[in-house]
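[audit] Reproducing an earlier prediction to check determinism. Same input, same settings, fresh worker. If the C-alpha cells differ from the archived copy the diff job will pick it up downstream; this log only records the rerun itself.
[audit] input (496 residues):
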Amino acid sequence: MTANTPTLVTFAIYLLGMLFIGWAGYKATTNLSDYILGGRSLGPVVTALSAGASDMSGWLLMGLPGAVFTQGLSASWIAIGLCIGAWFNWRFVAARLRVYTEKVGNALTLPDYFTNRFEDQSSLLRIVTALVILVFFTIYCASGVVAGARLFESMFGMSYQTALWVGAVATMAYVFIGGFLAVSWTDTIQAALMITALILAPLMVIYSDGGIGPSTAIIETARSGAFDMFKGHGAIAIISLLAWGLGYFGQPHILVRFMAAESLKTIPSARRIGMTWMVLCLGGAVAVGFFGIAFFASRPDLAAGVNANSENVFLEVTKLLFNPWIAGVLLAAVLAAVMSTLSCQLLVCSSALTQDIYKTFLNKNASQKQLVWFGRAMVFAIALIAIVIAQDPDAKVLGMVSNAWAGFGAAFGPLVLISLLWGRMTRNGALAGMIVGAVTVLIWQHFQWFKLYEIVPGFALSAIAIIVFSLLDKAPSASIAAKHKEVETEIAAHGE
C-alpha cells in the first residue's frame, strides 16, 4: 500500500458518489424546468448549501488561507465583505427573485426574467444578457478546469494534460446526466465536505501548537504585524476588499439557486443555514492561514511546500496532521469546492443557450425531451471549449477570471437589485445599466485608476444609468406596474 493509496481510494469513492447522484438526478428529470431549475423543488438545506458551495470555489480552501498566511489578518477584509454582501443578497434578493420569476411567465433563467419583467418584445435584453453570461462563464469554467487539474497534478503526480481531462470529465459527467438536481444535490454533499474540512483543519493546527495562547505567542514572535487588520491597507484598499460583497447581487450561478427554492417559506430558513455555513467556512479558512503561520514557524523543516506557494497551506497541514484516510476526505473537499462551482457554471451556460437562444430563436416548438437533450449537448460543448482554453495554464485569458466577479457584479448586480425593488424601472434603464456596468469594469480594469477595485465604479455608474434612463423613459405599462405591486404585496405578507 503506497502513501497515496488511502487518498486515491477516498477520491475514487467521492467521484463515484457524485456520478451516482448524477444518475439519480437523471431519473428525476422529465422536462426543461427540471433540468434547469430542478422543478423549483429545493428545500431550505439544499437551497442554502447549494448556493454556498456554488459560490465558494477552490479559492476558499487555497486562495484565502494562502493570502492570510502571507499577509496576516489584514487579508481577511475580503471575507468580511463577502459575508455582508451575502447576507444582503439573501435578505433583499432571494425571496423577491423567487416570487418575481414565477409571476412573470415562470422565468427559468436570468435572461428569461429580465425579458419577462420588462415585457421586452424585441428580445434585445435576452440576447445581451445571454451573451454576457456566456463570455464570462466560459472563462470562469476554464479557471475551474485549471484549478481541478492543479489538484490532481499535485496529489497524484499526473501530467497537467491528463489531470485536466480527469477533473473536467468527472464534473461534466454528472451535470450532463442529471442537470440541476444533480448539481444541487452534489453541491450539498460538497458543502458538507468543505465545512468539515474548514472546522477540523484549524482545530488540529491550533491543537498541535498547544492551543490558542501558545499559537498566538509564536505568531507574535515570528510575525508581529500579522495581528494588524490595517497593515499595508489604506482606505481605498479596504473599500476595494469589502466591495467584493457587491458582486453577490449579480452572480447568475448564485441567483438561480434562489429561483429554484421550493417556495417563499423556504427562504428564511435557507438564509440562516446559508449564512451560518458561510461564516464558519470563511472563519475556518482565515484560521487555517493565520495559525498556519505558527505551525510552520515552529517547524521550518516542514515549510518547503508553503514557502514555494503559500496557497498550499491547507493542503500541507492536512497531509501533515491527519491520518491518510481522513486526509483523503479533507483533500476531497478541495476538489469538491472546485467541482461545485464549475458544475453550476456549466449548467448556467447550458441554460442560457437552451432557453434563451435555441428555444427562443431557433426552435420555438421544440419538445421538452429535445430541450433537455440540447441542454446536455451544450454542457458537453462548453466543457470542451473550457478545456481548450485551459490547455495552457499560463494563458492570459485566465487572468480575466479574477475580473469576472466584478463583471457580473457590475453588469447584473444593480439591474437585479433595482428591478426587484423599484417599480418605475424600464427596459431601456435595464439595458443602459447592463452596458454601462460591463464597459466601466473593462475600462477601469485596464487603467487601474486609484487602485480601486473595478466593481465599485462599475456598480455605482450602472445604478445611476438605470435610474437616469428609466426616468427619461415613459413609465412602465399598467401590467408591469400591477405585477410589481403583486410581488410587493406577497413579500410583505411573508415579512420578507
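[audit] rerun output stored. Observation attached for the diff report: The domain at 5-402 is CATH 1.20.1730.10 (Sodium/glucose cotransporter).
[audit] end
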